[in-house]
């Protein structure tokens, strides 16, 4: 029987996302650590923006500073996420080919893992949980397990965020900036009403033992009896990676990596800025342009979707920088990028990009 190392810890959500998790991922990628399942229960309140997003547009940084909410920009995709004390992460770090499991793309990884945890929630506690594509588990339309994924160099990192405790909805509304385009087709417009917690649904406290039982049953439902969990801890090499990540990802240079203040800092004064947003199946797609003489002087592609590889958004930017503000030019470059064998844009179609660029090209989109 194959085994997965099982680690339990209690880092804050933000620290886990920006240092612990990538250290484990690098350990597996470097061959100095085994395939791993990790359960982390958050010790303090914190919040992160996704790798592809601009934190200044996703999070009210002033409000977070005033209320003491720790904010980080994480290394994986998805939207802004608040991690309250008592919440939890169930994460898998796998080499699918080595393990012999059918999780070789992000779409299947979401489907298999989220169906499994939905079934486990129902079996353990009778919750009417269900998988909602692309990457959520819901109870009556309210998210109880949002998730994100990364597939790089054959290593799958899958993070299931378990909403264990109730979050102050007023704090959530003030801390996370909700783009109207993202929720325009949802029945529930208020971001606070779109989430729920296990404690809220079950009417009782959820213990660490409960979460461990949920974790084990989820893994069993994902892989059957073919894989077991074996208690473990970080290797010395992973501890070293952890320190390096803490030094790097607590820096302002990293945090503002997708922001206009950093990316457009040296732009010509005569360039005009415009922006277009499009809600796709995978999430929000935002295109921010600097234009001059009907050319794209510079651009930033941001959002909360899940491309593979992550840097494909930079490839889109590089392909269009200096090109005419013309949708046919945009289409041709996108078709070339989408045709690459290494590119997976689940839930984001070329037409979604064209809609966002079309809005950004509109005269009404130009800001002062």
Q: What's the CATH H-level homologous superfamily of the largest domain?
A: Bira Bifunctional Protein, Domain 2
* CATH fold annotation of the largest domain: BirA Bifunctional Protein, domain 2
Stretches with pLDDT under 50, minimum 5 residues: none
Q: What is the H-and-E element order? A: EHEEHHEEEHHEEEEHHHHEHHHEEEHHHE
**Which sheet architecture does the biggest sheet show?**
8 strands, mixed
Query: From the alpha-carbon coordinates, what is the Rg to the nearest angstrom?
Result: 21 Å
| DSSP helix fraction | 25-40%
Instruction: State the secondary-structure class.
Output: alpha+beta
Question: How would you concisely characterize the structure shown here?
Answer:
The protein has 368 residues and is α+β, with helices and mostly antiparallel strands. It has helices at 13-29, 55-58, 61-67, 96-99, 106-125, 169-175, 180-183, 198-202, 208-223, 236-249, 252-255, 260-263, 312-320, 327-338, 350-361, and strands at residues 2-9, 36-41, 46-49, 70-73, 81-83, 88-94, 129-132, 136-139, 142-152, 155-162, 227-231, 272-280, 283-292, 295-303, 366-367.
Q: How would you sum up this structure, described in words?
A:
This protein has 368 residues and is of the alpha+beta class. It is built from 15 helices and 15 strands. The strands form 3 sheets. The chain has an 8-stranded mixed sheet with strand order 7-8-9-10-6-2-1-11, with helices on both faces. A hairpin with a 2-residue loop joins strand 12 (272-280) and strand 13 (283-292). The radius of gyration is 21 Å and the shape is globular.
């Amino acid at each position: 029987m194959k085994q997965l190392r099982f680690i339990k810890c209690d880092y804050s959500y933000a620290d886990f996302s920006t240092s612990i998790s990538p250290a484990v991922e690098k350990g597996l990628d470097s061959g100095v650590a085994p395939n791993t399942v990790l359960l982390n229960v958050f010790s303090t309140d914190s919040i992160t923006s996704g790798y592809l997003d601009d934190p200044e547009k996703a999070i009210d940084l002033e409000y977070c500073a005033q209320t003491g909410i720790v904010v980080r920009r994480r290394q994986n995709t998805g939207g802004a996420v608040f991690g309250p004390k008592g919440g939890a992460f169930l994460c898998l770090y796998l080499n699918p080919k080595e393990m012999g499991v059918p999780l070789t793309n992000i779409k299947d990884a979401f489907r298999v893992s989220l169906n499994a945890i939905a079934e486990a929630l129902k079996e353990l506690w009778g919750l009417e949980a269900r998988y909602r594509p692309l990457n959520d588990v819901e109870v009556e339309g309210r998210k109880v397990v949002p998730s994100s994924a990364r597939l790089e160099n054959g290593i799958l990192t899958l993070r299931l965020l378990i909403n264990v405790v109730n979050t102050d909805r007023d704090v959530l509304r003030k801390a996370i900036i909700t783009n109207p385009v993202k929720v325009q087709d949802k029945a529930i417009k208020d971001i606070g009403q779109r989430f729920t917690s296990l404690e809220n649904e079950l009417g009782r406290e959820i213990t660490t033992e409960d979460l461990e039982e949920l974790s084990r049953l989820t893994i069993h439902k994902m892989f059957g009896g073919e894989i077991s969990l074996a208690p473990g801890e970080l290797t010395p090499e992973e501890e070293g990676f952890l320190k390096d990540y803490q030094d790097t990802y607590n820096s302002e240079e990293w945090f503002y990596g997708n922001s206009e203040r950093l990316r457009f800092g040296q732009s010509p004064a005569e360039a005009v800025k415009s922006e277009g947003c499009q809600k796709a199946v995978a999430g929000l797609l935002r295109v921010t342009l600097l234009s001059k003489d009907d050319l794209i002087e510079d651009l930033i592609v941001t959002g909360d979707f899940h491309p593979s590889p992550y840097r494909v958004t930079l490839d889109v930017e590089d392909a269009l920088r200096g090109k005419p503000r013309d949708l046919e030019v945009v289409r041709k470059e996108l078709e070339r990028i989408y045709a690459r064998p290494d590119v997976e844009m689940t839930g984001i179609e070329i037409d979604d990009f064209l809609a966002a660029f079309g809005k950004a090209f509109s005269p009404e989109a130009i800001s002062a």
